[in-house]
Amino acid sequence: MMCYYRLFVLLALSSFVVESRHLKGNSYELSSFHRSRINATIEPKIWAVLVAGSNGFVNYRHQADICHAYQILKNGGLEDENIIVFMYDDIAFDVENSRPGVIINKPDGDNVYKGVPKDYTGEDVNVDNLLAAILGNKTGVRGGSGKVVESGPNDHIFIYYADHGGAGILGMPSGVDLTAKDLMNTLKKKHAAKSYKSMVIYVEACESGSIFEGLLPKNMNIYAITAANANESSWGTYCPGEFPSPPSDLDTCLGDLFSISWMEDSDIHDLRKETLDQQYQLVRRRTAVDDMVGASHVMQYGNKTIAKQFVFNYMGANPKNDYYSPSSDDDSSLTTTPSIVSQHDATPLHFWHKFRNAPEGSPKKTEAHKQLMDELSLRKHIDESVNQIISVVFGQEKVPEMLNTVQSAGNPLVHDWDCFKMLVNSFKKQCGSTSRYEMKYSRAFANMCNAGVHINHATQAITQACSTNSPPP
Ligand SMILES: *[C@@H]1O[C@H](CO)[C@@H](O)[C@H](O)[C@H]1NC(C)=O
Ligand SMILES: *[C@@H]1O[C@H](CO)[C@@H](O)[C@H](O)[C@H]1NC(C)=O
Ligand SMILES: *[C@@H]1O[C@H](CO)[C@@H](O)[C@H](O)[C@H]1NC(C)=O
Ligand SMILES: *[C@@H]1O[C@H](CO)[C@@H](O)[C@H](O)[C@H]1NC(C)=O
């Protein structure tokens, strides 16, 4: 199991010397600094879309991240009518939650579930609803509150997504996963409709760089940052048995490293004075302290000039932080990197701790043991299935190449997105799991498409492999 114990205390003061240097001599920043706080009756409006792409108590952290983001925006002055929340909503009242109705995003954190609007929950958290909501297409959404981004040409949009990902895909709890290409097409339509001035997108997921790498043009007034580059894990944190660990009654990871880094920053800083780039620098350092093994590289994509704007333009600003001073004690916590667990390993870790903490001989112990064993055999099944699929289609000797080839920086993952979409959808449908372990193989399907695989041949191989390889009990 990959768990990297990391505790890095950097001098808060030194980071702020760097930031104040960035601040000088930028007239745009100064003019927006003097702008008033958000006022719903004057333009531009801020719209936000928050998406947790997973479900299950084992994935607690993604919905916790999204709820926390909601609190930041709400405290920042945004109205519920402008914040659209996609979350499965099965965590707060899960039988495993020892604190019914409460979700926390850090060990000593407040309840972030309070007041979160339930716009799209359960099966309504799906690709079609998300893309229709971003487009502002009211007739395109099914179920849910019907809330969509009804933005105008002067408005700002903030999109934040947290979940498991794989090369070229972001997870969704119901139906198919979101492909980078479909997201990009939606953003292009939104841009062509002139229905925003500028947009900021934050993405937490494994291999999240692949969503924008070689795909997001600079001329769409969109600036995106991702937790990881196109070919590395992103990381869960506040995990059981790690440091700092969740309270003993919660045996699941409470947050994700990239996500808690920007949110704990936004919680205390005066966002009218912090630029998106300053926030990026802080998050980048906290997420991948430069000489750390196993951390991830926070990436920037799209129009980076937008990063000179103040964070306030996309998240609002909490009046409580008006007199925030960088020398405060709180700030040292923002440069301390908690220990981390890869997105894929957070699942067995949860079952292991549930098993360890359950009383000897209890039904809970038996259940946790079964869950852990099922997860391990499921992984083996998925590993073997991918191996078999590649072998059937290209021959055994091609397996390493299909698994490991990474496109060079600046290039998109795949050329034929229809082929890719067909194969990953088929694989999710037939080999998929709540732990989303299968997502780590989406690159293999991209490589198969790039090598000119015959789609029918490949989908047949997927069906065959997923149904025959010692499926879990
Ligand atoms: C918002 O702006 C309008 C128009 O300028 C003004 O009348 C109103 O007082 C402002 N509201 C707040 C809360 O500042
Ligand atoms: C809105 O969604 C509906 C249903 O999917 C679709 O038929 C329609 O073309 C969409 N409208 C726009 C403007 O994209
Ligand atoms: C990037 O954004 C800035 C600020 O919004 C804008 O002035 C500039 O034209 C944009 N660049 C491109 C290539 O669209
Ligand atoms: C893949 O990861 C390596 C090491 O982090 C990095 O140098 C490279 O740029 C990445 N490739 C892409 C396409 O992001």
Automatic annotation (TrEMBL):
Record organism: Gossypium raimondii (Peruvian cotton)
GO CC field: vacuole
UniProt keyword terms in alphabetical order: Disulfide bond, Glycoprotein, Hydrolase, Protease, Signal, Thiol protease
Protein name in UniProt: Legumain prodomain domain-containing protein
InterPro entries hit by this protein: AE, Legum_prodom, Legumain_prodom_sf, Peptidase_C13
Pfam family, any one: Legum_prodom
Residues of the active site: H164, C206 (nucleophile)
Keyword NAD attributed: no
Lineage, highest ranks first: Eukaryota, Viridiplantae, Streptophyta, Embryophyta, Tracheophyta
PANTHER family: HEMOGLOBINASE FAMILY MEMBER, VACUOLAR-PROCESSING ENZYME-LIKE
Signal peptide residue numbers: 1-20
Molecular-function GO terms, alphabetical: cysteine-type endopeptidase activity
Any single GO BP term: vacuolar protein processing
The family this protein is said to belong to: Belongs to the peptidase C13 family.
Domain Legumain prodomain as annotated: residue spans: 370-466
